[in-house]
UniProtKB/TrEMBL annotation:
Keywords: Oxidoreductase. It comes from the Bacteria. PROSITE patterns: ADH_SHORT. NCBIfam families: PRK07231.1 (NF005559). SUPFAM superfamilies: NAD(P)-binding Rossmann-fold domains. GO terms for molecular function: oxidoreductase activity. It holds the Pfam family adh_short_C2. This is SDR family oxidoreductase. Belongs to the short-chain dehydrogenases/reductases (SDR) family. InterPro entries: NAD(P)-bd_dom_sf, Sc_DH/Rdtase_CS, SDR_fam.
């Protein structure tokens, strides 16, 4: 893969999980990074970690909530101010919400999931796309297997992630002519703090048992690793990614192809 030297990349949700793993992966390839998260302390700690491993990396940290339009304008402006342009955008921040039957789902949580996962991704596209029109760019939105399949007890999450898949296709159609390629990834269960929290909800007494039970269903008999997702994202953000546009790419060990029990 070509180096990311002189490439300016924005990553949202960079304080932990998939965002942090990709930040580290791209730091190793000399990208200039604008790292965004609403958890300011977590972001500061993450940046210390990255700087320890890659002292020469250029990083701008922006404490911002992606569900707030003004905050999104702010992180886009900071990236431009620091690096003069935006080449790549990992539109990753998202939350899972709670696990509940759709009829009983708490409406406040429902709206919050939509605000962050759907509106947050949309605001990102709305303000990053115009910055890429002149010179082209690469965008990776984060959907989920829940963006291509139903997932029991996660109605707002599934609704928001299907919307991410839809917006990805539209961005690809409308902006492909500007050499902007927009794709989405659809991760299955990848072992991040978000998924650890989900296993706690499934089995509060023994989350590790819930994880082991879940892994049995996967063709690979294991969960995915954040670094495995990072290498796919890096490809999709790189100049090697040409003519792949508007795709929703599952990274789930093949699990979403399965019908019935393994
Ligand atoms: N981990 C998985 O198995 C998995 C599977 C499918 C999809 N995803 C998606 O991948 C993305 C990252 O998930 P993760 O597992 O790394 O989660 P995570 O909870 O480990 O990390 C998410 C990060 O995003 C930040 N964040 C959340 N809401 C934000 C907001 N409104 N503004 C700014 N920052 C915000 C959090 O502070 C956190 O640092 C999410 O969109 C998630 O839906 C994850």
């Amino acid at each position: 893969m070509k180096s990311f030297k002189d490439k300016s990349i924005i990553i949202t949700g960079a304080a932990m999980g998939l965002g942090l793993a990709t930040a580290k992966y791209l730091a190793a390839k000399q990208a200039s990074l604008t790292l965004v998260d609403y958890n300011k302390e977590g972001l500061d700690t993450a940046i210390e970690e990255i700087k320890t491993d890659y002292p020469s990396v250029n990083i701008v940290a922006v404490a911002a909530d992606v569900s707030k339009e003004e905050n999104v304008k702010k992180y886009v402006a900071k990236a431009k101010e620091a690096f003069g342009k935006i080449d790549g955008f990992y539109n990753n921040a998202g939350i899972e919400g709670r696990q509940a039957d759709m009829v009983d789902y708490d409406l406040e949580v429902f709206k919050k999931v939509i605000d962050i996962n759907l509106m947050g991704v949309y605001y990102g596209l709305r303000y990053v796309l115009p910055e890429m029109v002149e010179h082209g760019g690469r965008i990776v939105n984060v959907a989920s297997v829940g963006g291509i399949r139903g997932v029991l007890n996660q109605t707002p999450y599934v609704a928001s992630k299907h919307a991410v898949a839809g917006m990805t296709k539209n961005a690809a159609l409308e902006y492909g002519k500007h050499n902007i390629f927009t794709n989405a990834i659809a991760p299955g269960a990848i072992l991040t703090p978000m998924v650890e929290e989900a296993f706690k909800q499934v089995n509060p007494e023994d989350p590790k048992a819930a994880e082991a039970e879940y892994s049995k269903r996967n063709p690979t008999r294991r969960l995915g690793k954040p670094e495995e997702v990072a290498s796919l994202v890096a490809y999709l953000l790189s100049d090697d990614c040409n003519y792949v546009n508007g795709q929703v790419i599952a990274i789930d060990g093949g699990e979403s192809n399965m019908y019935g029990n393994a």
